[in-house]
Amino acid sequence: MSETLPEERSSVPVTVDSMADDLRTLGVEDGDIVLVHGSLSELGWVCGGPQAVVDALQHVVGADGTIVMPTHSPGNMNPADMGNPPVPESWYETIRETMPPYRPESTPTQGMGAIAECFRTYPDVLRSDHPQHSFAAWGADAEFVTEGHTLAYSLGEESPLARVYDLDGDVLFLGTTHATNTSFHLAEYRADLDLGTATQQSAILVDGEREWVEWDDIDFTDEDFPECGEAFEREHPDAFVTGTVGVGDANLLSQRALVDFAVEWFEANRS
Hints:
The protein is an alpha+beta fold. It has helices at residues 16-26, 49-61, 92-98, 114-119, 142-146, 160-166, 183-190, 225-235, 255-269, and strands at 33-38, 66-70, 126-127, 135-139, 170-174, 197-206, 209-218, 240-245, 248-254. It has one domain.
């Protein structure tokens, strides 16, 4: 299999400085609060990889701003719910007894991409305490965003998503789309929907000791997120801007506008 050469994606290397310029052109400014969803592979040949992306974001928003990223670790879950791949039922008890507990400083992300995994390890980055749906944050409001993240209803009113909403922050797509727009989950909690609840399980530390715990959450889904996002952009062209960072598509969107729109859209379009 032949490798894709760097010049096939980028006419020049993508650097910290060039990404910082792209972010400012997009509208990101010093002091901003941005909830970032990023795909490193979509940005071109980035000199320095994910570190360069994090550095560029920090240079642009500065110490007065705040960067937030989802740093989920969904593998720490009830083995009966594991489906990709499933595990034998005879393994369930062993998994429940031996799954390493969630630790904000060391538990790796899963499915979040290289940028988020790199970001969580940076100095002065704080990470919320949820074993499956944590968020990491850096900057002036990092503590406000990450503290008090409850086990139950993990993407609702006591989550970092709601704190970004309180701060009137923006959502920043770097080579990503509404398909992974976690802010829509906050709208699911706020919408008048009959989603039902599901019991979730994880290993956590309680007073320094490992415990296997249960909590309730809504039975949320992301299947219609792309359709909701497309409708939002059609109806609210003044609430977002598009551009490029590196060679990747980039969008900067008002999170409050997204969530408020999605509440009404879900109520109108979900059965």
